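Tutorial sheet, problem 5. The two components below are modelled jointly, 380 residues in total.
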Amino acid sequence: MQRALFFVAAAAICAALAWPAEDFAWVALGLAGVYLMLALGSFLDARSR
Amino acid sequence: METAALWAVIAVALGFDFVNGFHDAANSIATVVSTRVLRPFTAVAWAAFFNFIAFAVFGTHVATTIANDVVVQDILSIGVIFAGLVGAIVWDLITFYLGLPTSSSHALVGGMAGAAIAKAGGHVLVLDGVRKIGVFIVLSPLLGLALAFVFMLVVFWATHRYTKVDRLNRVFRRAQLVSAAAFSLGHGANDAQKTMGIILALLIASGEVGAGSDVPLWVVLSAHTAIGLGTLTGGWRIVHTMGSRITKLQPVGGVCAETAAATALFFTSAAGIPVSTTHTITGAIVGVGSIQRLSAVRWGVASRVVWAWVLTIPGAAAVAGATYFVVESLS
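Model answer (structure tokens):
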């Protein structure tokens, strides 16, 4: 569960950087999406144990 | 007199590149050494070779960003660039002595900014460029972390039914040679270009080449030679921190961390974004460590590294600013 929360925090940081990243906003948003998927996977993994 | 000063500062810039090489050599070879795939000297020679040949693979977009997008070109002078370099080198040596894997790149940006601000005030910063560099201070380790985690997931998924563990370990031990080479290539491309950018800025400031010129070939070759020689000299204090104190690495982890960091560096070098190779590989090693559980990562060491990151730009800027005032008072 800790890992899922860590990934959610990482996703939030990446999303927050999308605006100042300007031309590279797609990198920040894409990374935020990846972290959200990793958070979901970690959450489901933790629940299944 | 001015020509002698120009060549002296170019020598200092190449000295910075050399320091960068031995400071960051650890990043390229820490996993190879800590998993005993190569002996330390062989690993260092392997990394130095790929540092050098990076010039043949990547363009000079990062060099252009450093020359044009940190401070306005009008403000650049030999004194400003010299002070910026001194700030970066002194900061690198302090963190090298303390064994902290901080960023030579951000020390350089901080040094340039500090010296320029000391000369003419904060308005000389190119905000778009500084913002882009600032965003990727945070994004590059997160990119390395996510890629390493995903690579580990893919490897585990692909091999979880494979029962010959010893054989699999041998494959990954050898694969580390390729991943370390790829990372060294990315390191050479991104970090050597920062020195090229500094030398290009010097040549423009002294009127040797026109504004908007490409990086001359001799600058490209000398920057890659300096970083390759620096890597050959090695940096064992930081190898220890990177290779074993953040998380304990197995060969499979080393391959995934280096491949992830190399992928991130290839992308940023092609996009002209100066990022820290140190930040990127640290994020990737944390990603590998956290695949099992977050407690596998030694957060005490990782947070000490993060504090060093936070302090790098202001620290190098302060040293550079002070150096600029000394240079001005002497001239």
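Marking note: Chain A has one domain: 2-48. Full credit if you identified this.
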